[in-house]
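Hey team,

Filing this mostly as a record. A colleague (T.K.) asked me to run one chain through the structure pipeline before their review meeting, and I want the input and output archived in the tracker in case anyone asks later how it was produced. No errors, nothing strange. Just documentation.

Input sequence:
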Amino acid sequence: MSEHGHVVEAERKTPLWGEYDLAVLGGGPAGMAAASSAARLGLKTILIEHYGFLGGMGTAAGVTNFCGLHALIHGRIERVVQGFATELLEHIDALGGLNAPHMLFGGRIAAQAYDNAAYKIAADRITRKAGVELLFHTRGVGVLMHSKDQIKALLIENKSGRFAVSAKVFIDASGDADLAFHAGVEFEKGTSAKDMMYPTSMFRVNGVHSDLAQASLPHIDDFMDQARLEGTQFARRSPIIKPQKNTAEWRANVTQLSNDDGSPVDGCNAWQVSRAEVLGREQIADFMQFLKARVPGFEASYLLEIAPQLGIRETRRIVGDYQLSEDDVLSCRRFDDSIGVNAWMVEEHIAGDVLFKWPHAETNQGFNQLPYRMICPQVVDNLWVVGRCASMTHGGQSAARVSGACFVMGQAAGVAASLVLEDCLSPKTISLNALHQRLLAQGVYLG
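Output structure:
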């Protein structure tokens, strides 16, 4: 039966998948850090992920390098995101899949490339060893509420059907704030290039002559400018093309995905995302032609892989007890309720280009701290929201959306969950001193 453009479904009884202390939605850096940290502190924890592997944008979207782990401190690059991230790096390295950190922007910052397959295996091993129950190929599709400020269960769907996951507390690490959205948490989401970043379709190239390609990199903008004069069109400037662990294999971050009106593709809009997947592949095919024809070192290269999904940078950002701002990043702000640090600059993907903003010279101490309040929604009281959908302004999120900050937020939420359940507290009334002590015991650097 249809009613005003809708289909009315019959009432149903939804079976219970299981009962847990903690349910985490999303298996990216924030989700895996949250689930593992909580499970190690004795919480019965389930981690729900819609792919068949962990890693989030780092694996599913082909990012293949960690950003924000390292900071320039007193003229030296140092890794300042530790704790869960340290263990993950060690596991990837043991599998032979971790590059040494590589310098960017004339030595102002560093990133660290990894092999996708090694990352997936390492993430499995760490979470399972911690005692996390992994549920793959599953999406969160709704919630049941005890009251306006208490979630009772997360509704999920997978090939086995539709189920409810009951938990005492929840962590939303979905990237798009899906769980928080269904629970009625206030959020912000831009609609234009001024308040939401453009996605990218990432790809990897093999058969590269690494020495020649390295020598070509400083001139890539000149090659593109010459191609433009001869009629070639590019979606954006400021390409990022770097080698992987095997130096014959390179990753490319060069596409930019927009709607017909020029606005950024909205990662929460299925029609826009579907069109953008096709658009991204077309841009990749065109850029491969350019690389092979014009950039020394890429003449014999070939397209190895297009990432399974778009690289979504920004959609919903919840409004929490504090919104991390662009000024917080640029002023390297400190917070009494620090849960760790963000070492990445503002990297805003604007129409046709990437805009970088660096911390103010007079205040630059290498990083800004991240406050606990930014992962606590204002109303729902048994939920933390971590990762790129945490409480940040557009400018703040342009920096703290990267993997380094996501590890920090996730680990803090997992540890906070243990304190809440031990002492029958709410997320907002836990002891910050106790939180800090447990984070330090897990190796976290608070800054």
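Quick notes for T.K.: The longest strand covers residues 161-172. The longest helix spans residues 270-294.
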